[in-house]
Amino acid sequence: MQGALLNVNGIITDLDRRQFAAWQKVAMYEYGMGLPGKLAGDFKGLDRNAALDRVLAHFNASTDGDARGDLLAEQDRFYGQVLADLSEDDLVPGIKRLLVALYDHYVKLAVNDPAGHGDEIIKRLKLDEFIDVVGTKADATQPYQFLAAKLAVPATGCIALVTNQADLKQAAAARLTTIGIGGADQLAGADYRVSQVGDLRYQMLEKVWEDTHEDK
């Protein structure tokens, strides 16, 4: 096992909560009324365009062209503000132990943040010494192929830690060994699955990779 690829959101820290907080600020600024907290679950896992559609639907509003771009830019500014207090306390339990173990075994590490704040987030979480490559929204169409190439590691030498079916399909198509984190309904087809990040251990990942990479 030469490389490990993973998303920032859901594996390293919870960014859905902060993205929703930024959308609440947009709603208050644009419509004079915040989004109720009970809607937070509706935004989980949405990209920014889909989240904007959800906001517009809530207020029975519509927009297009430059106005839509302005709203997305506004949300991004608010998102940058809510990231300002991000710290090591916001790490998903168990993730730093895993990243340190991978680093200590000379496994190259790449993370993906399609929202485009990955470098800032990794620095605020004090993980930058362990991470070799940070992917951005410009790389979102084929993130696993891109990250493996940036690490200069063959895809078959990498594992991907994934939390949803879309990432699982992309990682599998790129011929990475896949480790699913979450429920079996979302992650059927992963080479191995655990319930939560805290269940992951370096030795486990190495064994799964050894057992599967010959078939990739």
> What's the SSE pattern?
EHHHHHEHEHEHEHEH
Give the C-alpha Rg.
Answer: 18 Å
CATH class of the largest domain: Alpha Beta
Helical content band: 40-55%
Topology readout:
Elements: E1 3-7, H1 16-31, H2 40-43, H3 48-58, H4 65-82, H5 95-104, E2 108-112, H6 118-124, E3 133-135, H7 143-151, E4 158-162, H8 165-173, E5 177-181, H9 184-187, E6 192-194, H10 202-212
Parallel strand pairs: 1-2, 1-4, 2-3, 4-5, 5-6
Helix pairs in contact: 1-4
Q: Would you write up a description of this structure?
A:
This protein has helices spanning 16-31, 40-43, 48-58, 65-82, 95-104, 118-124, 143-151, 165-173, 184-187, 202-212, and strands at 3-7, 108-112, 133-135, 158-162, 177-181, 192-194. The protein is an alpha/beta fold and 216 residues long. It folds into two domains: 3-14 and 88-215, HAD superfamily/HAD-like (Rossmann fold), CATH 3.40.50.1000; 16-85, Putative phosphatase, domain 2 (DNA polymerase, domain 1), CATH 1.10.150.240. β2, α6 and β3 (133-135) form a beta-alpha-beta unit. It starts with a strand and ends with a helix. The relative contact order is 0.16. The mean pLDDT is 91.
Provide keyphrases for this structure.
216 residues, alpha/beta, Rossmann fold, DNA polymerase, domain 1, 2 domains, 6-stranded parallel β-sheet, 46% helix, elongated, Phosphatase
Brief rundown of the structure:
This is Phosphatase. By secondary structure, the protein is of the alpha/beta class. It has 10 helices and 6 strands.
